[in-house]
Design brief:
This protein has helices spanning about 55-65, 85-90, 120-125, 125-130, 135-140, 145-150, 155-160, 165-175, 270-275, 285-295, 305-325; strands at about 1-5, 50, 70-75, 90-95, 105-110, 110-115, 175-180, 185-190, 195, 200, 210-215, 220-230, 240-250, 250-260, 265-270. By secondary structure, it is an alpha+beta fold. It has 3 domains: about 1-100, no CATH class; about 100-215, 2-Layer Sandwich (Uridine Diphospho-n-acetylenolpyruvylglucosamine Reductase, domain 3), CATH 3.30.465.10; about 220-325, Enolase-like, domain 1. The strands form 4 sheets. The protein has a 5-stranded antiparallel beta sheet. It has a 4-stranded mixed beta sheet with strand order 1-2-4-3, covered by helices on one side. It binds flavin-adenine dinucleotide.
Length: about 325
């Protein structure tokens, strides 16, 4: 257990202190190697965050089994921008960046697996991801800017469970499987069942996201991604859409269509998927998909957009993406 004092300059964001050089460094673009960032000015004078830094998955789940209230931390790009009240409540954390089993991208039979603490920079640079799942690489390039992509992790994006998280519709469209770890061992959750409400996930107390498995798409499958924001970088989505599927004998045999920022959680657009199954791609099918998609979502007005605009944008984006299937 390492105690990080809010007023301790050595543990603030900034160049790593001399002592951290002794710790294992991650490759370029990795989210690790930096001391746990603690914003002293956001915390009451004299308050502390107690941090455990496990060096293996076994050690991590043992800590979580003993104290399920430990808050997992990865890149901290979401955690550290929460308000002072939330930070005050966060007094015990478990830093996952030193756990090797949670890092990296590897090919497995039938797909690839991405460790939860893999950063978006690593994902966008990965040849394996770009070859098989270009829409995930594309989404990774749209998360914040380069500095955020260097620290932000896929597991953090998932567990943070913002309805606007850019990778989340992609994982839905790609039919990902989440491998979670806890004191009881590993279990798998289809990604379609991972988000269960506004910022709520199927993780049980003391469980963490260990990795995500992406099954390869069949040869000739199509996939597409589109984010609508205020600008190209550093913009949270007003609407974000991903799709994947396949054509057989000139008709849409399967379409998985998913969207973010249009409901309390990222959603599959099942009515639109169903409506176009068996249809030939083209303008009428694209119109139908757009209309159904706009009908089935429940967007809200907030600081970034209005419900009306989101519905309008979703219809247009889905229509254009489904038109793109036609080639
Ligand atoms: C300036 C800025 C711009 C941003 N732009 C975007 C954007 O364009 N698109 C976008 O989607 N997001 C954006 N974000 C949000 C953020 O960068 C992402 O959600 C990021 O992926 C979070 O990952 P992290 O590793 O930093 O998570 P952290 O902040 O470390 O953790 C986030 C949450 O996940 C939990 N957690 C982390 N890892 C695990 C795990 N393995 N298992 C269980 N729980 C875990 C933590 O307890 C916490 O609740 C932005 C953030 C900032 C500050």
């Amino acid at each position: 257990m390492r105690r990080l004092h809010a007023g301790d300059r050595d543990h603030r964001l900034g160049p790593p202190p001399a002592q951290s050089r002794a710790e294992p460094r991650r490759g370029p673009g990795g989210a690790g190697g930096q001391p746990l960032p603690v914003h002293g000015d956001l915390r009451r004078a004299g308050s502390v965050i107690a941090a455990v830094r496990p060096r293996s998955l076994d050690e991590a789940v043992r800590h979580l089994g003993e104290d399920p209230a430990l808050v997992p931390t990865a890149g901290c790009t979401d955690l550290m921008v929460r308000g002072p009240e939330a930070l005050h409540r966060m007094d015990r954390v478990i830093d996952l960046l030193g756990v090797p089993e949670l890092r990296g991208i590897r090919e497995v039979e039938g797909g690839i697996e991405i460790g939860s603490t893999t950063s978006f920079s690593e994902i966008r640079r990965s040849a394996a991801v770009r070859a098989a799942f270009p829409i995930l690489a594309e989404a990774a390039t749209m998360v914040g800017g380069w500095q955020i992509q260097n620290r932000a992790t896929l597991g953090g994006n998932m567990a943070n469970a913002s309805p606007a998280g850019d990778s989340l519709p992609v994982l839905l469209a790609l039919d990902a499987v989440v491998v979670v770890a806890g004191a009881q061992g590993l279990r798998e959750i289809p990604y379609a069942d991972f988000h269960i409400g506004y910022r709520r996930t199927a993780l049980r107390p003391g469980e963490i996201v260990a990795r995500v498995r992406l099954p390869y798409l069949p040869a000739g499958a199509f996939q597409a991604f589109r984010k609508v924001g205020t600008r190209e970088a550093q913009a949270i989505s007003k609407v974000v859409v991903a799709l994947a599927g396949r054509i057989e004998e000139g008709r849409i045999a399967e379409l998985r269509l998913a969207a973010g920022s249009v409901a309390a959680m990222p959603v599959r657009l099942r009515a639109a998927e169903e409506a176009v199954r068996g249809q030939a791609p083209g303008p009428e099918t694209a119109d139908l998909a757009g209309r159904e998609a706009a009908r089935e979502v429940t967007p809200i007005d907030d600081v970034r957009s209005t419900a009306d605009y989101r519905r309008f944008a979703l219809e247009r984006v889905v229509r254009r993406m489904v038109m793109g299937i036609a080639g």
